[in-house]
User: Fold CoA transferase from Actinomadura physcomitrii.
Amino acid sequence: MSSAAPGRPGRALEGMVVLDLGQIYNGPYCTMLLRQLGAEVIKIEPGGGEPIRWRGDGTTVSQAFNLLNGGKQGLELNLKSAAGVELFLRLVAVADVVVENFAPGVMERLGLGYDRLEEANPRLVLASGKGFDSASRHKDLRAMDITVQAISGMMAATGFEGQPPVKSGGAVADFIAGTHLAAAILGALVQRERTGRGQRVEVNMYDAILPTLTSNIAGYLDSGGTAPERVGNRHGGLSVAPYNVYASADGWIAVLCMRDRHWQTLCRLVGREDLLADESLATPRGRVEAIGRVDEVVSAWIATLTTAGALKLLQEGDIPAAPVRRLREVIEDPDVRERGMLVEVDDHGRPGYAYGSPLRLGASAPVAPAQAPDIGEHNGAVLSRLLGLTEAEIEECRRRGAW
Amino acid sequence: MSSAAPGRPGRALEGMVVLDLGQIYNGPYCTMLLRQLGAEVIKIEPGGGEPIRWRGDGTTVSQAFNLLNGGKQGLELNLKSAAGVELFLRLVAVADVVVENFAPGVMERLGLGYDRLEEANPRLVLASGKGFDSASRHKDLRAMDITVQAISGMMAATGFEGQPPVKSGGAVADFIAGTHLAAAILGALVQRERTGRGQRVEVNMYDAILPTLTSNIAGYLDSGGTAPERVGNRHGGLSVAPYNVYASADGWIAVLCMRDRHWQTLCRLVGREDLLADESLATPRGRVEAIGRVDEVVSAWIATLTTAGALKLLQEGDIPAAPVRRLREVIEDPDVRERGMLVEVDDHGRPGYAYGSPLRLGASAPVAPAQAPDIGEHNGAVLSRLLGLTEAEIEECRRRGAW
Assistant:
């Protein structure tokens, strides 16, 4: 399926076809990234659409769907029918990648286990996004973002000591797993260039979220298990201080001192030159041991300033800091719009939104944002272009219950 | 550098060489993933080591360093010396990938901008992990995990309404950006197989974190900006109810009803069949509108049960749920150990830890976990193997100040 001529930049995945059985966030984000690298992504849904379409009252589609599915081709298929499976396997034969994040065992029950797909196309990469390994003790837990955040320690590590565990406000388990899944697919495609063969790849959300807790895990291991479980806005491993979010006169600001010179500058800024002579505060470990006192020094100073005022002084002193911005400010940030990370698109006559790609490749032409498909919107176009079916043959598929 | 014979599985990146200038989490996690796909990763550090080594009191190395750098080759280089730059460029000529997540402009100041690297090796992929685009309004903000969580809306979206913003307990901005960076590199390597040329790729943390907020962004857009900014442990877009973390008699448990049938089963479980007749609670939207009442029904029931007891009943009813586990339980989870996600390794005679790979490729042989290098531990071995330098030539490099 590789149509780009050698020497011509084109796009990284130009000519590649991805069959996308993804649902909600994990699978669809993975295929969004692949589309933005130049692949053609065919979003395959059953008659009722994938579960994210069921949100709201069933008559409107949330922008959550539009954001992740822009520019994909919409193909309705009933994979519980023989005709649907047959058509899917014909598409597999001409595809490069299949992505699915169904519950465990669904593909096998549909008769679409890896063996059958590999038989249809030995060059195929089958990518499965799961919650847990099929041999895991946790394999019977339903893997959604919130359940994986609960069982993985992410919630235990988020929030303030002595207060309830908190879910990370982003769907971090879903998205970090979907990003890993894209990386696994791309790794398999690199390997395919040399071996000529595809393979099965899998990413489990439980595995993908673990490394994000490196500060906390290291804090636990380094302290012999005595480190506190959650530390609010302090450093997850309590390895750095100051490192916190401080209340200003009109908001909140994050400040950290990675290096001793940041601390020294800060002492001067806040008018506490006396602390420079305190040797117990001269090292990262010393400041962590006195973390309450250190935070108080910063808090007392920032409380007297506006966020913008504090930020200006901290930046002049080259001390890492950033305002805690409201979601509204982020969504309306001209930077986000101008870089194409969040753009308005026409959604079948309604206003829609699409994401741009965080992956910026200098020699791979960017892919324009586009509207997300309606269910089955491109059945005719996809089947005629990829399989060469005539109108009569397409109608015959429909009649036989392929969708 | 591709030594795997066609048809032989080997490893996805077998024979590839990655020069790793990464620091802290973002770059080093990216190269950890590349190593686990079979690449040789050479961790290049200045005399004092990369900043993560400075944590603690300077005599011990945190497990945070070991976890991300296992199995990399340690090369000490002084890139501020002409001899160091010269040696680095000779390595670039035989490498496939360079990864760096320095502050903006550092590579250029070292005389190692993309033009110079491309000249040394047109097949090279130069991967840069940054906080913001070089043209961004935010480009002067120092991009660390906490500052990016602050400015990106992640903190605004985490925590309870009316209470302070909360940092996600995982370093999600660093790790999701590092994972995207690995995907961008792999995309560029796929493209190189067809064009024969490398390219520059970049991932900005600010871009990479945005899609994780899809529920919240969609909630904002769908509601015309009236959705609450943070909603504790409820669904980020307030699109699903019940969806929360509930206190049990001995802990916390996450429960959600994705489908109407989950809600129906739950009503029976909690002995509130009367609610089945309440049409206002029959749709997702209806339950969200009555979210306080819905949460109370679930809370009252779960408070009477242990976490394990509630989980058992919910699982029997096929209702998605999971216990909120303590970090200790995760770190000591035999599942995590047996799957090789967190394993003990010998660290130069001390106890060390290494991560396994969330990327599981069926036809790419796994890479064994190994200890992280000391600074410059492999100078001799790397320079002799990759550049063919003799002992005398290596000594001459050292004498000229290359390290």
